[in-house]
Specification:
The chain has one helix and five strands. It is mainly β and 85 residues long.
């Protein structure tokens, strides 16, 4: 069971299926995240249907990229959980 556990924000996410989900579905989940002015470090989740998995909940954290004086915020997906049908 240890190899199936993923630690995210001090919480263990069992059965993290994110590595097995194709990139286009993850990209669609990121595009569905809220576009408001969420602060740095905010956590959000969105549910989507993924082929061969059914309903999946993607959890993402708001991150900041900085280069020199310029910075911008973006969503980084941390985990994906299969939801009960």
């Amino acid at each position: 069971m240890k190899d199936r556990m993923h630690f995210s924000n001090r919480m263990a996410v069992v059965d993290n299926i994110l590595p097995r989900i194709p990139a286009p579905y993850v990209a669609r989940a990121v595009q569905a995240m809220p576009r408001d002015d969420s602060p740095y470090g905010a956590v959000a989740s969105v549910e989507q249907t993924v082929l061969h998995f059914g309903r999946v909940r993607f959890t993402a954290r708001r991150m900041r990229s900085k280069r020199g004086r310029l910075s911008y915020l973006f969503w980084s997906v941390e985990s994906a959980e299969k939801l009960a049908p």
